[in-house]
Structure formats: C-alpha cells, structure tokens
Amino acid sequence: MSAAARILVVEDEPAIADTVLYALRSEGYAVEHCALGRQALARQREAPADLVLLDVGLPDVDGFEVCRSLRGFSAVPVVFLTARNEEIDRVLGLELGADDYVAKPFSPRELVARVRARLRRHLPAQADPQAEPDAGWRRHGDFAIDREGCRIRYRDRLLPLTRYEYHLLAALLQRPGAILSRAQLMDRAWDAEADSADRTVDTHVKTLRAKLRAAGATDDPIRTHRGLGYALDA
Fold first, then answer.
1. 70: number of Cβ within 10 Å
2. Between the N and C ends of the chain, which has fewer C-beta atoms within 10 Å?
3. Any idea where the OmpR/PhoB-type domain is (predicted)?
4. 3-class SS of residue 99
C-alpha cells in the first residue's frame, strides 16, 4: 500500500489514540488525529483522508451520527473503533455505510491489516479511467465493470463506491434484468460473518441511486419490485 495513503483517526481516549497512531505511522501511513466528531467532519471537508477510523463513543457527537454526516458528502471508507459490540450496533454501523467494525480491545496488527485491506479496495477506484486501458473491463449497457479492480463505471464515469455498494451493484450487474431478493443480495454483497438485515440492502440501494444520479443518470437504473427485490436495467 502506498505510503501516501492518509488516515484520519477520530478517537478521544489518549492511550488508544497513541497506540493506533503509532501502529499506522510505523507502516508508513500519513495519519491525522481528531478527538471530536465535529472537528473530524470539518477536517474531512477541508483535507479529505483516504480512510477514517471512527470511535463511536465521542464526547461531542455520537460516532454513528458522524458517519451519517460523512456519508452526506463523502464515500471515504469508515472503520468503527468501539467498545460496544452488540449486534444492534454492528447492524446500525453497516446501515449507515461503514465498511468495517472493530471492537475494543483489538490487536494493533489486526487493525493495520484491516486498514490495508480497505485501502486496497478503495484507492484503485480513484484512478482516472480515461488514463487506463480498457483491458479487464466488461460493458453492460451504460455500465462497465472491472471485477479484478473492484471498479464500476457509469457512462464512462468511475463511481466512488464503498465496499458494500460495489458488491451489491456487481451482483445486480452479474444478472441484468433479473430480480434479486434482499436475501440474495445480502448473501452476495456482505461477508458471511457480517450481521445485517433487509433494511441494510435498502439503505445501500438508496446511496447507490444517489451516486448514479450524480454520475448523470436521469432514469433510475435500479428497479424496485415490491415484495420481491431489486433488478438492474443495464
């Protein structure tokens, strides 16, 4: 992973923050620290990081609310750091668009490995598709997908997708026109160990539609079939 990758650590406990900062800097990452949620939101607007490590129990704004606000203007990968490990918290974090959820206490080595994995999925999608050859891309109407690079274009514009948005859209692209139930989409887009729910799929479909509109979609290519699931008009 490139040493230029920038990580924003949002953690108010000094001992934990120091451990995380040291572990990440030892791997060559450029790391910035914020102790408050509002401060982190302002910083991400001013100088966007490549990944955000976000504590849930912040003193000013709940980490879930920070994630919700981030998703209003950024597709940056978010990994929650929290002592709260209840299923409902993990489900809520995924519904809000988080990419991973690490419960305290955690191993710094494991945390670095998870950060590296998230960045590996995210950073290649920032490259300019016009500057690269089309080898590996497969076109489906207005869409093109590079499964090895985990990238999707819409009308030749690269979509800034989170991990789960990519896998959900890739599942729909695998069978254009076919109706896939929420259970089928969860099985294909989420890790086997991830706790999820039907409304998680609905939340990610909503964010996908917003990104497609931003990329120039006038008609919604993701069709809702009430009581059945979703299908893609590619």
1. 22
2. N
3. 135-234
4. coil
The fraction of the chain above a pLDDT of 70, given in percent, is 82
- The CA radius of gyration of the chain, in Å to the nearest whole number, is 18
Token pair of 132 as six digits: 């690269």
In 10 A of CB 139, how many CB atoms? 11
CB contact at 8 A, 9 and 31 = yes
Q: Which of 204, 197, 232 is nearest to 75 (CA)?
A: 204
Q: What is the DSSP string of 20-42?
A: HHHHHHHTT-EEEEESSHHHHHH
If you count DSSP H runs as helices and E runs as strands, how many of each does the chain have, helices first? Answer: 8, 11
- The candidate with the shortest Cα–Cα distance to 159, out of 202, 211, 206, 123, is 211
Say if CB 41 and CB 68 are below 8 A apart.
Answer: no
CA distance 48 to 10: 14
* CATH pick for 137-232 out of 1.10.645.10, 3.90.190.20, 3.40.190.10, 1.10.10.10: 1.10.10.10
How confident is the model over 12-36, as a mean pLDDT? 93
Of 58, 62, 54, the closest CA to residue 79 belongs to 54
24: phi then psi, degrees, rounded to nearest 5: -70, -40
Please write the tens of the pLDDT for every residue from 45-93.
898 898 999 998 899 998 889 988 887 787 788 898 887 655 545 566 6
CATH number attached to the domain at 6-122: 3.40.50.2300
